[in-house]
Amino acid sequence: xxxxxxxxxxxxxxxxxxxxxxxxxxxxxxxxxxxxxxxxxxxxxxxxxxxxxxxxxxxxxxxxxxxxxxxxxxxxxxxxxxxxxxxxxxxxxxxxxxxxxxxxxxxxxxxxxxxxxxxxxxxxxxxxxxxxxxxxxxxxxxxxxxxxxxxxxxxxxxxxxxxxxxxxxxxxxxxxxxxxxxxxxxxxxxxxxxxxxxxxxxxxxxxxxxxxxxxxxxxxxxxxxxxxxxxxxxxxxxxxxxxxxxxxxxxxxxxxxxxxxxxxxxxxxxxxxxxxxxxxxxxxxxxxxxxxxxxxxxxxxxxxxxxxxxxxxxxxxxxxxxxxxxxxxxxxxxxxxxxxxxxxxxxxxxxxxxxxxxxxxxxxxxxxxxxxxxxxxxxxxxxxxxxxxxxxxxxxxxxxxxxxxxxxxxx
Length: 411
What we know:
Helices cover 40% and strands 18% of the residues. With 411 residues, it is α/β, with parallel strands linked by helices. Helix 2 (44-61) packs antiparallel against helix 13, helix 8 (192-201) packs across helix 9 and helix 15 (375-391) packs antiparallel against helix 16. The radius of gyration is 23 Å and the shape is globular. The model has no long low-confidence stretch (mean pLDDT 86).
């Protein structure tokens, strides 16, 4: 950097005085006292562990953490985007990495500064999805993918293919032991994240790939012959076919059937495993089995990270605290052990739990979810196609309509 460039540089300094009060001297020399609290929007799984971390954060950083778990997942994303510019509502929120493109395009997320040591402490593949135009826009924390969750009180062996799942489920139904063959959460809005392993085994592909391995968003494959064939397989399992997968299978259905103990299998993620175990169920997980004559059932992997709101009242505290705290080995080890998920901190994943071990071993067989700014709309188009096909619509018509809508979205 030249002397002229150095003369243009300004420094922002934060510090804690002898009384524990936190201050900031901004780049223009103004001195302000910072409020010593953070408002975080998180899911209940992250909230449980941060309740345990509160005392440590208070003693180490002098900051009180306030948790809001009223909205999670897609509801949280829509709420945050709608309220992002209302200063003070939230300082930090947790979401998957495929939000980052939209958040950056909406100027609804603050870049994060990580030291070289902090970067080195994180798994390379976990940090990359949060990088956009040379900046880092989130701190990766946990990883998740879709697995086959098995009620071992009903099933002894892991099925080797999806047809075996059906065979075992039907045998339990004939014995009046099982109510459903398998639960795949669909609901009125669909959930393509969960159904995708079966679609991929049938040959479906969402986007093409660049030579460097990156997603090519302009090469849309949902209406390819192999993708239409995969949708036809889902239709055969749907309401106009065998009736195994139905749109009425929402979260309440999961609670009544799988967690109620009357269904041997479920396609779900680590949060579903945690809820089943909290209910006292004896469950194990395995990779989703593909169709007997199909390809591998490749799930998407999503990485959940902590984002800093650019209009939060305490974003300066968040920018100081989160990079330090969330790259600590002891913190991420405790997080992994508590929620049963792999974490982004190197060597911090607790492998004492079979679910975590399976998730780690399955990672190399999965695909990192795309994170383009258009992805929320893309998932919406794919979800509508999923619901239509399961409800009995023509798979080719639904696939082509979804592909046309995706091309318009990304053009």
